[in-house]
Amino acid sequence: MQTIDVQPHATEARDPGAPITVLTTHGHRQESSLLDPFLDEIDTEGIVELHSDMVTVRAFDREAFALTRQGELALWPPLLGQEAAQVASVRGLRHTDWIFGSYREHAAPLLRGAELSQWMKTWKTHSSAGWNPHELHVGNWQIIIGAQTLHATGFAMAAKMQGRDDVAMACFGDGATSEGDVNEALVFASTFSAPAIFFCQNNGYAISEPVEVQAKYPLAQRALGFDIPSYRVDGNDILATLAAVRLAAERGRNGLGPTFIEAVTYRMGPHTTTDDPTRYRAAAESELWAERDPILRVERYLERQGVDLASVQQRAAERAATVTSSLRREVVALTPTDPIEMFDHLYTRPTARIA
Ligand SMILES: Cc1ncc(C[n+]2csc(CCOP(=O)(O)OP(=O)(O)O)c2C)c(N)n1
Ligand SMILES: [Mg+2]
């Protein structure tokens, strides 16, 4: 049977626009009239700090992954490859701005100082909340895809009503953009002109579903339909992403309403420790993205600037080692729970099935 393409020009009619890059894969700094004003005060020392953040976050993530493989944690969704996007999302905001993320958002609680002994209880099945959101200004992570976009929008609406200049960021994935919750959040944020930042990490996949299955055009363009300004940035470029977050925060604080950012990145690891990505994606694709590694390009840049890279790496590795050894100590100290306890707070009386 012949298939008729009823929208032959759908793709051509839209300009996909390559993601904006400030720091190229080869470590060259490019000019961006849009983003450079938000990077003014970041000198080489500032970039060294961002590098250290990324190295620490990566090491933390790897250690948690290993702890899961060793039977110490129940599950882990790795962020490997997304360090630039995640670090930028945290460092581009003030501590008083709120972040509402998903299960993969480890940089926010880590960099905002979550107690590992409490946080890891969630990944060892002891509790469903890992920190006091009011201390960190980070909402507890969500497994319900996209739910946190509504939380962030509600928070942003409240901040506006109360006359505060805080912004609220929702961090979510490419797959989440297909959820009703996310679309409802966009409607509310737009119509109430809420100081919300929709920070979408397009890591290429929703578990095994490539992003192309969810959208035939850049995700950033979805926001335009809600009349929300939208920017598509290279999510493996910490400078571009940081600047975009600052731009969005500036807009929110100045009463200009919500902003959508699509940070184009790549999930270098599996979806979680229970997934095997070799079953649905080619090695060549992962190799291509390995070359776009967010940490590598900063190191190439620093080297070009004449910075003593070995000592920068050494300092970052020392900081990372302190974090990973605390992580291991706290996780091993938590005794495993009895699996039946997972039903403890579910019903007031056990149902027949649970009994
Ligand atoms: C409402 C809802 N539907 C389905 C799922 C199952 N699920 C868990 S993760 C996931 C994929 C999400 O992909 P994406 O939004 O791209 O985030 P990523 O995991 O790539 O960070 C799905 C469908 C869920 N947790 N919640
Ligand atoms: Mg994804």
What's the helix and strand layout?
Blueprint lengths: L43 H26 L13 H9 L6 E3 L6 H5 L4 H8 L9 H4 L10 H15 L6 E6 L6 H12 L4 E7 L2 E2 L2 E2 H4 L5 H5 L5 E5 L3 H16 L5 E6 L18 H8 L3 H11 L4 H25 L22
Parallel strand pairs: 1-2, 2-3, 3-7, 6-7
Antiparallel strand pairs: 4-5
Helix pairs in contact: 1-2, 1-12, 1-13, 2-10, 4-13, 6-7
The structure holds thiamine diphosphate and magnesium ion.
How would you describe the overall organization of this protein?
This protein has 355 residues and is of the alpha/beta class. It has one domain (36-123, 130-333): Rossmann fold (3-Layer(aba) Sandwich). It has helices spanning 44-69, 83-91, 107-111, 116-123, 133-136, 147-161, 180-191, 211-214, 220-224, 238-253, 283-290, 294-304, 309-333, and strands at 98-100, 168-173, 196-202, 205-206, 209-210, 230-234, 259-264. The chain has a five-stranded parallel sheet with strand order 1-2-3-7-6, with helices on both faces. A two-stranded antiparallel ribbon has the order 4-5. Helix 1 (44-69) runs antiparallel to helix 12 and helix 1 (44-69) packs parallel to helix 13 (309-333). Residues 102, 104, 143-145, 172-176, 203, 205-207, 267, 271 line the site of thiamine diphosphate.
